[in-house]
């Protein structure tokens, strides 16, 4: 595997199991009273997920551009699925998400209700995250093509944010960062039994996903009489 494809080796042998190992090593913090740890771990997960998605975008030259949909008309729902499957999702992303979530659930010792809250809110925000990744990739590739600028505004930006937050030891800020922090803070509200705050954050997750769909429809999908 290493000889034939180094990227597949790094994804399958290092990054994906590595996320599970990191969480297992931090298991004592997960079951402690530290309120930032879930948000921090999820931040790392989304950081590596971004690397996998953008890395796939760089190496897949067969990715469909918006111009392709104008030449070969498709329905908006089909464009959405094609973009999601061929440009965003692959087996490495799915495996890393599954390994990370199962490890978190295994070591956290949460109650069943907290696990359900965590799973549902994660799915909602994962959808939101993928929507905004699709928007970002479409905008960047239309403007710059298959450029390293995409990596700069996605992975590198959030890597610097993580590094700055960790070095300043202001770990509580991880609870406020988009997607990962929102999931972590929702879980903390569920652990504390704050039902009103949990429902409020669920509403925020649904609104964020709907806003992502709206932006994707307005910006990403080609507007042409040949596209239905």
Helix percentage range:
over 70%
| SSE topology string | HHHHHHHHHH
Shape: globular
Task: Estimate the strand proportion.
Answer: under 5%
Average pLDDT for all residues: 78
How many domains, in number, for the residues? 1
Structural class: mainly alpha
Rg over CA atoms, rounded to whole Å, is: 19 Å
* Main beta-sheet strand count, sense and barrel state: none
Determine the number of helices (DSSP H or I, runs of at least 4 residues): 10
- For the secondary structure, the number of strands is 0
Distance between the termini: 43 Å
Q: Unreliable segments (pLDDT under 50, ≥5 consecutive)?
A: none
Name the descriptors.
single chain; 228 residues; mainly alpha; 77% helix
Describe this structure in words.
With 228 residues, the chain is an all-alpha fold. It has one domain (6-220). It is 77% helix and 0% strand. The chain is built from 10 helices and no strands. The longest helix has 33 residues, at 112-144. It is globular, with a radius of gyration of 19 Å.
Task: Provide the fold topology.
Elements: H1 6-25, H2 27-30, H3 37-59, H4 66-71, H5 76-88, H6 91-108, H7 112-144, H8 149-167, H9 180-192, H10 195-220
Summarize the structure.
The protein has 228 residues and is mainly alpha-helical. The chain has helices at residues 6-25, 27-30, 37-59, 66-71, 76-88, 91-108, 112-144, 149-167, 180-192, 195-220.
């Amino acid at each position: 595997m290493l000889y034939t494809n180094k990227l597949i080796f790094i994804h399958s042998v290092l990054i994906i199991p590595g996320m599970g190992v990191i969480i297992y090593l931090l298991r004592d913090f997960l079951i402690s009273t530290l309120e930032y740890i879930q948000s921090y771990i999820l931040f790392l997960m989304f950081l590596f997920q971004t690397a996998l998605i953008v890395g796939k975008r760089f190496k897949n030259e067969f990715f469909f551009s918006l111009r392709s949909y104008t030449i070969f008309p498709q329905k908006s729902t089909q464009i959405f699925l094609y973009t999601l499957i061929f440009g965003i999702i692959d087996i490495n992303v799915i495996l890393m998400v599954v390994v990370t979530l199962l490890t978190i659930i295994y070591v956290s010792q949460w109650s069943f209700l907290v696990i359900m809250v965590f799973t549902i809110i994660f799915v909602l925000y994962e959808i939101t995250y993928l929507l905004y990744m699709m928007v970002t990739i479409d905008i960047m590739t239309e403007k710059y093509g298959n450029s390293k600028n995409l990596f700069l505004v996605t992975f590198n930006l959030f890597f610097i944010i993580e590094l700055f937050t960790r070095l300043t030891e202001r770990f509580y800020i991880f609870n406020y960062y988009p997607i990962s922090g929102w999931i972590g803070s929702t879980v903390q509200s569920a652990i504390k039994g704050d039902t009103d705050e949990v429902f409020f954050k669920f509403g925020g997750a649904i609104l964020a996903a709907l806003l992502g769909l709206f932006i994707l429809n307005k910006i990403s999908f080609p507007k042409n009489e040949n596209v239905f």
